[in-house]
Amino acid sequence: MEQEDVDPRVLRTRRDVVEAATRLFLEEGWNAVTHAEVARRSGYSKVTVYAHWPTRLDLVRASVGRICDEVDHPAPTGDLRADLIAGLTDFAGDLADGHLDRVLGGVFERSGSDPVVDELRQQLYEAGTRALEAVLRAHLPAGDVQPSLAMLVGGVLVRGVFQGRPPSRAFVEDLVDRVIPSPQEG
């Protein structure tokens, strides 16, 4: 059924419920996303929520979809170093505000438990790294893109999540300079 063929009330219900589930997921994490709490926050009955999203995983999947649809990356300028620093600083900010680490934590914790969770992990990674990957592809040989992306994103992730220290701009600049040598060094 095409989106335009759906009753506007159904579209509004879906929008409101997914918005409530997404806010809940971002604010409190995976365990907080229950049919009862999503129904309460969205103003719809549990019966309505269950009718469209029969499982908690369906609610989480819809939330991850919304999060990925709303990913906003800095616009590339064509300057490799500046674009990487801007993108990684943006990522660091998303980690520092506490929302992204709750989402990633819930997905990482459940990875390997269900193929849908593994798809969500991949979806989050692709949406979050798409712009950085495009920047790297524009400047590096194809074989260097994925290793460089892993080192850059991994460095910010380790610093922010595992070490519990916000990745400062100075940290990001140093990381970029260590992973991507300047043209005169290359």
From TrEMBL:
Alphabetized InterPro entries for the sequence: Homeodomain-like_sf (IPR009057), HTH-type_TetR-like_transc_reg (IPR050109), HTH_TetR (IPR001647), Tet_transcr_reg_TetR-rel_C_sf (IPR036271), TetR_C (IPR011075)
Record has Acyltransferase as a keyword: no
Keywords: DNA-binding, Transcription, Transcription regulation
Keyword check for Transcription: yes
Residue ranges of DNA binding: 34-53
Residues covered by the HTH tetR-type domain: 11-71
SUPFAM superfamilies (alphabetical): Homeodomain-like, Tetracyclin repressor-like, C-terminal domain
Protein name, UniProt field: TetR/AcrR family transcriptional regulator
Organism: Nonomuraea monospora
